[in-house]
Design brief:
Length: 252
């Protein structure tokens, strides 16, 4: 009899971070969606998170049956397949790597095509308005067209800003970070922002609060404020991930 224990995943929950692998993702539903599996990644339920991220997996023809996003700002990032996003009477198509930002007060409908399934990451949070600073506008974009930024040493990576983090109207940023094999953040970061991170490609080692975890495509990490963190790229191909963080607000 073979009594060897086969570990089903690398998922772990710690006091100030958690790592979820695709094997940990649990199928859920959300109100007013049809033919859609919603997999909550981070939400404020019993966590420090002040935002929500959901993996939406649409069957062919699946999507929302009522407008979504009321009371929140939203960011949609297309992972697989294509979806149509309807807002303010306009229909736009998102292909893999496309994204859109929808400010507070703008609701949307989202649908996969009738012929193919699709997968979308939906980020939502309550907007933190600041007196004297105007609210952001709708943004549609494509990751492949975003400007690649090279940070100063000791960083050994590049990143693309999908939202203009220097614009004080925005209270969160979405970046795609890319590291070649052997590349790294170059320092252990400790800061008051929180993160939601989805691995898009490749492999790496994430240092989280004195723990080391191997991560790969499809993994998700939540990092609470002040969680010590850094990343190292490993393997034989570039590693990239989509990173959420709150910006431009003082924490109160």
């Amino acid at each position: 009899m073979d009594n060897k224990l086969v570990m089903p995943s690398r998922g772990v929950v710690a006091p100030n971070y958690f790592l979820m692998t695709p094997e940990n993702f649990v199928a859920n539903g959300l109100p007013h969606f049809a033919k859609t599996v919603a997999r909550p990644l981070a939400t404020p339920r019993d966590t420090a998170a002040k935002f929500g991220q959901y993996m939406l997996e649409f069957e062919a023809g699946g999507g929302s049956v009522q407008p979504q996003g009321a009371g929140f700002e939203s960011f949609l990032y297309q992972l697989d397949g294509s979806v149509s996003v309807t807002l303010e009477g306009t229909v736009r198509t998102l292909q893999p790597g496309d994204y859109c930002y929808l400010p507070l007060g703008v609701t949307f409908s989202i649908h996969a095509s009738d012929s193919d399934p699709a997968k979308t990451l939906w980020t939502k949070r309550r907007y933190e308005a600041v007196e004297g600073i105007p609210a952001p506008s709708v943004i549609f974009g494509r990751t492949s067209e975003a400007v690649e930024i090279v940070p100063p040493p000791p960083g050994q990576y590049t990143y693309c800003e999908l939202l203009p983090a220097s614009n004080p109207s925005f209270d969160f940023a979405m970046n795609v970070l890319t590291a070649q094999p052997g590349g790294s953040i170059g320092m252990i970061e400790i800061h008051h922002q929180e993160h939601g991170l989805l691995m898009l490609n490749g492999r790496g080692i994430y240092y989280l609060a004195a723990d080391f975890h191997e991560v790969s495509k499809g993994d998700y990490i939540y990092m609470a404020p002040y969680c010590p963190q850094t990343f190292y790229g490993i393997g034989d191909e570039a590693t990239s991930y989509l990173l959420y963080k709150d910006v431009n607000r003082d924490g109160f």
